[in-house]
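Submission sheet (multi-component)
Chains listed below:
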Amino acid sequence: MILSEIIKNSNCKVIQGTIDKEIQAIQHHSGKIEKDTLFVAISGYQRDGHDFIGQVITDGATAVVVEKSIDLNLIPDDVSVLEVADTKLALAEMANLFYQKPTEKINVVGITGTNGKTSITQMLNDLYKTTGQKNAVFGTIANFIGEEKIPTVNTTPDALELARLMSEAVKMSCENCFMEVSSHALKMGRVHNMNFNYAIFTNLTEDHLDFHTDFEDYFTAKFQLFKMALKGCVVNNDNEYGRRIIEAMKSHKRCLSYGFSETAELRADQIEYHQWGSTFHLNWHEQCVPVKLNIPGKIYIYNLMACVGIMLLEGFELDAISKLVTKVKPVRGRLEQVSSDPARTVLLDYAHTPDALENVLQAIHEFSKGRIIIVFGCGGDRDRKKRPMMGEVAQRLSDLVILTSDNPRTEAPELIIKDVLEGMTLSDALFVEADRRKGIYKALELAGENDVVLIAGKGHEDYQVIGKTKIHFDDKEVVQDFFDGRK
Ligand SMILES: CC(=O)N[C@H]1[C@@H](OP(=O)(O)OP(=O)(O)OC[C@H]2O[C@@H](n3ccc(=O)[nH]c3=O)[C@H](O)[C@@H]2O)O[C@H](CO)[C@@H](O)[C@@H]1O[C@H](C)C(=O)N[C@@H](C)C(=O)N[C@H](CCC(=O)O)C(=O)O
Ligand SMILES: Nc1ncnc2c1ncn2[C@@H]1O[C@H](COP(=O)(O)OP(=O)(O)OP(=O)(O)O)[C@@H](O)[C@H]1O
Ligand SMILES: N[C@H](CCC[C@H](N)C(=O)O)C(=O)O
Ligand SMILES: [Mg+2]
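Outcome: structure written.
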């Protein structure tokens, strides 16, 4: 594509060279330069793309976009140099044009909130697949284009990767894209310039206050998505921040509220909880339908209502939707049953916030007949405030606690554990075992008949990050090793 076409929506100052030249690729990483690449220099948290300009030109970049002034004496004359106010936003604008505005050709549903995003994307995929539609799903576990699984680092990819993935999804005839939109992504411009048809809000509770200055900053980031949604929003009415979104949006666009309270437009009642899932009624205006969901816990009724809300806005009949719900499958690493021993239930769950832990433990209380034994830890280099809160919740809602490590990252595991202990009281029912494998073994050894062991925090993750190293570690395999008698 011609450079002038790529930059036409960005307010660029041409510092040097021509904009009438052919560009083959856009990149922001110096390690991925090909012939005739447009390199966008980004000032990051660790590195500065501007420091790599010399190298990318040697490797084949023929145009660079900067947000800082650079020494033009070091740049060959035939390399075009463009200046913008913010290269992160310019990257999103340029990638959108380079990949031919892919989000205008696919129905994009963005999901935001502290907990429930991954679950909702997967549930929406199950529901829409049943209607015969092909989907892309972008999120924490991986990015999926139909059945193709593409590994990912971030929950929401950067703007360049997103535009590329979206254009691939369009090429592969996906009709919908269900994507998680993290508050980091919203704040860092990763979804700038995208077309969202719908936005879903799940909840806003303690997390990421290492990145956001306070709750208002966290909320403001999330709120951006609702301003962007073109066709409508589906919002949790039982959460105070959800009610703020509903209030702010209702005079601007269709805003469907869901929840258990009487004021929600889509409402669940007559609930019966079981270990395999739950049954309930969904009420919408004058209609009421019975529903059977194969995932246990009240939180999944919330997640399902969010999905149903989207389908209602899209014109599906409530009765028809309720029949599709039997096709919704449990989500990998979310209340996933992994025990091969019929006497003991062992569950994996990705709960890594106080609210998730509270909800998941409450869900287990709804069906458990014995004791609840929890194994959990907190991630390093992340929000420290949530640690004692998670400790308090774990102790309050379970009978035995094994406090262990999650992903310590660059922090000392013992110090993370110390933070968690601030919210707990010492007791015979509390064990500390920093080695996660040993912690899981300890819980399984202690579990008797009818007991439920919950291994929380890592869900689908098949690694542990210790220092800067990622080692293979899979809670599910550790449980299997225990039952197979491996040390
Ligand atoms: C804090 C944060 O969000 N960091 C993200 C950011 O990295 P960064 O700013 O550190 O990047 P950097 O390494 O300084 O590089 C700056 C620039 O120099 C370039 N560079 C860098 C090195 C080099 O050799 N050559 C080069 O050209 C890079 O391509 C980049 O353009 O940009 C990267 C590329 O897009 C992201 O992968 C990275 O996410 C890191 C891995 C991360 O852990 N992010 C977390 C906090 C996050 O975003 N989490 C949310 C989910 C949270 C949740 O829902 O629970 C998410 O959406 O993933
Ligand atoms: N609607 C919900 N409300 C509260 N907690 C939930 C809800 N849905 C799921 N959870 C809990 O949160 C955990 C994470 O769920 P999920 O992965 O769907 O959330 P997420 O928003 O994608 O998280 P992340 O921000 O890490 O990507 C689950 O394992 C479960 O314990
Ligand atoms: N997206 C979340 C995942 C946390 C998962 C948990 N296992 C941890 O490492 O804290 C984060 O990066 O904060
Ligand atoms: Mg997720």
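Remark: The two ends are 58 Å apart (CA to CA).
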